[in-house]
Design goal:
alpha+beta; 8 strands; SH3 type barrels; single chain; 5-stranded antiparallel beta sheet; Mechanosensing system component YbdG; Alpha-Beta Plaits
Length: 422
């Protein structure tokens, strides 16, 4: 720059003007070199690297290109050139060098962050990532590196050693604990979740406190992302999975059966002993033929042995329509192709209430998929609600307006006529 400045002075430029002109020319020259270096690195070097990575034998290597690691790394080249030419501007050398070093540190942090993200992307391609996610640990490393990078930037701008700043962190430990409280809790929670295998990506969890009811799509340092069945996304703090209770349906999915637990409410006024006609009718039902024949013989022998008389059924044992219906349901479910016969299968009575007598079905479907499970369950109850009348049983429901209208009959339909007197 001094040579250019002297040349301008020889060209009869004023010394001050020659100084600023030479400085401007040097800045333009450095800028031109930076532009050329950036162009060469992006259009030549990065293209060669991209071609090599794309044609490599490692298919996961292309994930480095997805995160643009080399593109970010190319930004360091102009900063190095500016730092090297800072000596040509002695009046601003210190400012230029500090600015260039700061830029290099920032770019380095961006490159390191992109590398960490790439490592997580590659790890997620393996099956173990569902049971042992590392995203939380990568975020911890990222926070540590960003903190150290911030200290390097501050120490570079202040012109002091980073050790001086590190020595002051001890006094700020309480403040740092407060600032990074969620991150520290999330780190501890992540370790416990992974060690105890409490949740995995893809698990169906239910956490009413946070409105979460769906599949886990991401586990990070601070949050667990749950996609609900209505396609909304719920963010649950990681440490909440340790401190609060939640339901994980993974056990159901791995067991090979999905539970049916639903009741049919029967009108208690329709419960009665089976008549001879009812018994003959039940014998014609495939699932009850053997049962009715066996029970008739057993009851007859019992009543004869203990001198019970059939004139009054209260004095002996008799079959009831509610019992027949319960046995029918039991045998129907045992022969149903959609019910898992290796798991619990119960048909039981629950305590009667003002809504009638509940007959509860407790069974498991073979297909754990939601759509298939609901279809099998609906088919079963469609059938049972339709056949209840065959056992002279009535399904209970609260009276509707049509029921009241039928009960009152003509009282509502016919208008009241008044005779006039006088």
């Amino acid at each position: 720059m001094k040579y250019v400045q002297n040349w301008l002075i020889e060209m009869e430029f004023a010394p001050v003007l020659a100084k600023y002109l030479s400085m401007t020319m040097m800045i333009l020259f450095i800028g031109l070199i930076c532009i050329m270096a950036n162009f060469i690195s992006k259009k030549v070097v990065i293209r060669l690297i991209t071609h090599f990575v794309t044609n490599s034998k490692f298919p996961r290597a292309s994930m480095v290109l997805k995160r643009r690691v080399f593109d970010k790394l190319s930004h360091i080249v102009p900063a190095i050139i500016i730092y090297y030419f800072a000596t040509t501007l002695p009046d601003y050398q210190m400012i230029i060098e500090k600015a260039a070093v700061t830029y290099i540190i920032v770019v380095g942090l961006m490159v390191f962050q992109a590398l960490l993200t790439t490592v997580n992307d590659i790890y997620q391609t393996y099956e173990i990532s569902k049971t042992k996610p590392i995203k939380g640990y990568i975020q911890v490393v990222n926070i540590i590196v960003l903190t150290l990078g911030g200290l390097l930037v501050i120490s570079n701008l202040m012109g002091e050693s980073p050790l001086i700043l590190l020595s002051g962190i001890g006094a700020l430990s309480a403040v740092l604990m407060l600032v990074f409280k969620d991150s520290l809790l999330g780190l501890v929670a992540g370790i416990q979740l992974a060690a105890n295998d409490m949740v995995r990506v893809g698990d169906w969890i239910e956490m009413p406190k946070y409105g979460a009811d769906g599949n886990i799509i991401d586990i990070s340092l601070n949050t667990v992302m749950v996609q609900n069945f209505d396609k909304t996304i719920t963010s649950v703090p990681s440490y909440a999975l340790i401190s609060d209770s939640f339901i994980n349906w993974r056990g159901m999915e791995s067991s090979g059966g999905r539970r049916i637990k639903r009741s049919i409410l029967l009108d208690t006024s329709s419960i009665s002993f089976c008549s001879g006609t009812m018994l003959e009718k039940c014998k014609q039902i495939h699932y009850l033929t053997d049962y009715v024949t066996h029970k008739e013989r057993e009851i007859s022998e019992y009543n004869t042995r203990f001198e019970m008389y059939e004139e009054n059924k209260v004095n002996g044992r008799s079959l009831t329509n509610i019992g027949m219906f319960r046995v029918y349901i039991q045998n129907y479910l045992k022969s149903h192709p959609g019910i898992n016969q290796d798991m619990t299968l119960l048909v039981r009575q629950l305590p009667p209430s003002e809504h009638g007598l509940p007959i509860e079905i407790y069974a498991f479907t073979k297909d754990i998929r939601w759509e298939a499970h609901e279809s099998i369950q609906s088919d079963i109850f469609d059938h049972l609600l339709a056949v209840a009348s065959e056992f002279e049983l009535k399904v209970f429901q609260n009276p509707t307006g049509n029921d009241l209208k039928s009960l009152l009959g003509d009282t509502i339909s016919k208008p009241v006529r008044y005779r006039s007197v006088g």
